[in-house]
Design brief:
The complex is a heterodimer of chains A (448) and B (313). Chain A is 67% helix and 6% strand. With 448 residues, chain A is mainly α. Chain B has 313 residues and is mainly α. Chain B has eleven helices and one strand. The chains are: A mainly alpha (448), B mainly alpha (313). At the A-B interface, α8, α9, α10, β3 and α14 of A face α2, β1, α3, α4 and α5 of B.
């Protein structure tokens, strides 16, 4: 943001494997460039750079996910999430710059390592999601989520992989998205504690906006997964969808395993980043990040808080004993009946009655209506009362503020001025000679 | 060994206390409204009854529907073990602090919402959509309030927060803590589906949020869903009670200290439950689109709390 407008337009037209590469590698070159320029070439940066990067990162993260929520084109939705994640990475980078300015090299290393780890994580889970989306588009012949549904039964393995990716990108423990956001939070928090200026109030606010971002991302992926894979199919294509070929599943499986591995064993991977950040900020973190032989992750100061995704997973698995015991004691004799969903006494539930993607994000559209400027058109054909319509046509649009308020006016302005300028280029040699003469005169006058 | 014992003790406590707390709130609410009300162990009896019942599962639902109840049940239980309850040292505090707690609760909510969408009924979708919206608006207020507390303790580790606020003098009238407490209390009401936000006692179609999502569940899945929800409520109230009022919490694990800790903890819970009951009885449910106003008030309170930290440090 606000230079993002090309991305949501580019992703849907690219083939899905290329989209995966694009969001995995291509847009990371920007991050690479910024890291190199900020930390290596330009030396000690002034404070307002870090502040600017942090502010832009925060705004991109929130706006990116808000626009993602309004999308019902699966790939455009993922494209907006790339903007959000780049925003999260920039929060880490901006915080690192600010810490470097105030001579907290260790904290800068922590923030930078958070940003770099999120870069890797985003590359992995976003590629996974794009491959999953590609499989879905291939099977259902549409990118529109409103025409999908019920794919979890028809494509169980794709659904599982997509679900893992969705949990990872929503920054839910124990997967990798959570780990890098945890590091970001930790660096922001310690940043507030260890710096003194008024500008440090930015850290907790950035953190709060990051919380908003991840909660909205979770809402968005409940929508993306729920509408695409769950409930009844909303179109014939979706109903006839079949699981994709093993080669397409294989790629997703590898990335899924990578997601889980990066999430559960962060201390192993973060050690690999340490030389990089040590080179850039001059302060190696060393073993300050890992605790209890790498079992738990800590942000520099072990008193400052720890997290162990591995522990969370193992603890969760151990607690499965509780429902199992309850089943053993009480529920062993129970039977399971398969019945249709309760339809309020109507004649069967149809896909038309399901919640749609647009309906799902409606409350959020209402809450942030100042931003979205949603427009809707309803046309009813009716005989005697508008409440008993024969046909209803409903249209709803969300305005992309940057597109309509910044780029289109700019575009129009350039076109209009160039149209005016065209009068100058009339095609007559004499006129051109006069232009040259006048220019020459003016230049000579300036020279005097 | 004592570690294992404290894990076991806290698990049992969480499992037993959570439905009792729900029952207590329900009973007191009825009393305050001049009704007799159900007995306080009614929710526990209900859960045990659901466990023994057959299940009816929707034909439209996929494996996600059957997976969700386990996540919704186990996650709050795990979170409960990461929160200091009767002793200042939580059994699994190494596993994660405040940030992990928030993240795990979000994980439970994620699967709850997916479970609501899976059977394809309009109610489930409605509930999921509203739940995710409200939680998204509640999250920044919650995070900012937790940040404020974490900043004054210098740690996100909950055990550490409790110990450090216990070490310093009685901080009840510290404006930072007062505002952060108010913000977290509002968030707690929203997260547990209490009255200004959601009505836990209704199956009235158009206003329900949490009930709408679990409408298609039956038998033991329903039991896990209900139990999970009540454990989540207990965990959030424990957080409120122990972070802001750490007095009386046991510092070492001797039987006497643990007994005292338990008694004080129960007393604190009773007070909080009383507050919830009063709020639920004196307020009407808000219209869905007024809820963000309430939660932005919580956000404003948390912001003020943060400002005070800044000023007084």
């Amino acid at each position: 943001m606000p230079l993002h407008v090309w991305l949501p337009a580019a992703h849907p037209v690219a083939p899905s494997n290329i989209s995966a590469l694009m969001s995995g590698v291509l847009i990371k070159t920007g991050i690479y460039g910024m890291t190199r320029v900020f930390f290596e070439f330009l030396g000690s940066p002034p404070n307002w750079w870090g502040v600017t990067v942090l502010a832009i990162g925060t705004i991109s993260a929130v706006l990116g996910v808000l626009y993602a929520l309004m999308e019902h084109d699966l790939k455009r939705l993922l494209a907006y999430h790339s903007i959000e994640n780049i925003g999260i990475i920039l929060i880490g980078l901006g915080a690192a710059l600010m810490f470097l300015h105030t001579n907290h090299a260790l904290l800068a290393s922590l923030a930078l390592i958070a940003a770099l780890y999120h870069t890797i994580n985003h590359a992995v889970f976003k590629s996974l999601l794009f491959l999953g989306a590609g499989a879905v588009v291939h099977a259902a012949h549409t990118r529109n989520m409103e025409e999908m549904g019920g794919l979890a039964k028809r494509m169980p393995r794709t659904a599982l992989y997509f679900l893992v990716g969705a949990v990872a990108i929503s920054a839910l423990p124990p997967l990798n998205g959570f780990v890098s956001e945890w590091l970001t939070y930790q660096s922001l928090l310690q940043g507030f504690g260890k710096t003194t200026s008024l500008i440090r109030l930015m850290f907790p606010f950035s953190g709060a906006m990051l919380a908003l971002t991840s909660a909205l991302a979770a809402a968005c992926f409940v929508k993306a997964f729920g509408i695409t894979f769950l409930a009844q199919p909303r179109s014939d294509h979706a109903a006839q969808a079949r699981e994709v070929s093993p080669s397409m599943l294989g790629g997703q499986a590898v990335l899924t395993i990578a997601c889980i591995f990066l999430g559960l064993c962060p201390t192993l991977f973060l050690l690999l980043f340490d030389p990089v950040t040590a080179q850039l900020t001059g302060a190696p973190l060393g073993s300050a990040l890992s605790l209890a032989n790498g079992f738990a992750l800590s942000g520099i100061d072990p008193q400052g808080g720890t997290v162990s995704t591995l522990g969370i997973t193992l603890g969760g698995l151990c607690l499965v004993i509780v429902p199992f015991m309850l089943w053993l004691l009480l529920a062993q004799r129970t039977r399971i009946r398969t019945v249709p969903t309760w339809d309020c006494g109507l004649r069967g539930l149809t896909p038309k009655m399901e919640y749609t993607a647009t309906g799902f994000s409606k409350p959020i559209r209402m809450i942030f209506k100042a931003l979205f400027r949603a427009r809707r058109e309803v046309q009813r054909d009716y005989d005697f009362s508008p409440y008993f319509a024969r046909t209803i046509r409903f249209e709803s649009h969300v305005e992309e503020v940057f597109l309509t308020r910044v780029y289109r006016p700019l575009n129009r302005f350039v076109l209009r001025t160039s149209r005016r300028m065209r009068a100058l280029q009339a095609g007559s040699i004499q006129a051109y000679l006069i232009y040259i003469f006048v220019t020459l005169l003016l230049l000579l006058l300036f020279a005097l | 060994m004592s570690k294992l014992l404290s894990v076991l003790l806290q698990t049992v406590l969480l499992l037993a206390l959570a439905p009792l707390l729900s029952g207590l709130i329900r009973n007191w609410k009825a009393k305050l409204q001049n009704r007799r009300g159900p007995r306080i162990w009614q929710p526990l009896v209900d859960i045990l009854k659901f466990l023994r019942k057959d299940m009816a599962i929707s034909a439209h639902a996929s494996w996600v529907f059957s997976f969700a109840p386990y996540v919704v049940f186990i996650v709050p239980l795990l979170v409960g073990l990461m929160v200091p309850m009767i002793s200042a040292q939580a059994p699994l505090s190494l596993f994660g602090g405040a940030l992990a707690v928030i993240g795990l609760l979000a994980l439970g909510r994620f699967f709850l919402a997916l479970g609501g969408l899976d059977p394809g009924s309009a109610f489930g979708g409605m509930g999921s959509s509203r739940e995710m919206t409200i939680s998204a608006v509640a999250e920044p207020a919650m995070m900012l309030a937790i940040f404020t507390v974490a900043i004054s303790a210098g740690s996100t580790d909950l055990s550490h927060i409790v110990q450090s606020s216990q070490a310093s003098t009685w901080k009840l009238l510290n404006p930072t803590h007062l505002m952060a407490f108010a913000a977290l209390f509002i968030v707690m009401l929203a997260e547990t589906g209490r009255i200004p936000v959601d009505n836990p006692a209704t199956h009235l179609e158009l206003t329900m949020i949490h009930e709408a999502m679990i409408l298609e569940y039956s038998g033991r899945y329903l039991a896990f869903m209900e139990w999970g929800a009540s454990i989540k409520q207990l965990v959030l109230m424990t957080l409120l009670a122990n972070i802001f009022f750490p007095a009386g919490i046991a510092t070492e694990m001797t039987p006497i200290a643990a007994g005292c800790g338990l008694a004080v903890f129960l007393a604190k819970l009773l007070v909080l439950a009383g507050a919830v009951v009063v709020v639920e009885t004196t307020n009407a449910k808000l219209r869905l689109f007024r809820v963000p106003d309430l939660l932005s008030a919580a956000f404003a309170l948390a912001t003020l709390a943060l400002m005070f930290t800044f000023l007084f440090q």
